[in-house]
Amino acid sequence: MIPWEYWGCFLMLGAAFVTDIKSMKIPNAITMTGVAAGLCYHSITSGGSGALFAIKGAGIGFALMFVLYLLRAVGGGDVKLFAGIGAWLGTGLTLSTMMYSIFAAGCIGLIIIIWRREALTRVRRVAHTVLGAVILRSVAPIKTAAQGQLQFPFMLAVLPGAIMSVYYF
Question: Residue 164's Cα: distance from chain center in Å?
């Protein structure tokens, strides 16, 4: 039997998947409801220890994704979504989901670059950016290059990442 917290998390992820695919945004209504519902579920089923489990998971999910947000690797909705994942699944499964999601995103990005035949151009651009940053001793070239990053809905990687995480955990 599949635990209820998995159902709650995957309900939130399903809604986030649909909206992210359509608009490349994950609304606060989905993420904040997910965080609150996960916290309530664990508080009701396990009391104070359940609340602490959910708070720690949400905090870890939020904090680590916030670092990626500062690096402009993910959007703000993804940060809040991982807080919701943490509230439902706790620290261990959240970290596992994050790892599998980042791996899946890398694979998806690589497939897109190869499909578009941009691999050589992108490698050259990265080399120029790194060389520019070293020569100028500044992060300005990195910030400029960040504007031309490959973008796709991160939920294309998060949903398979969550599935792999739950399957292998």
Answer: 14
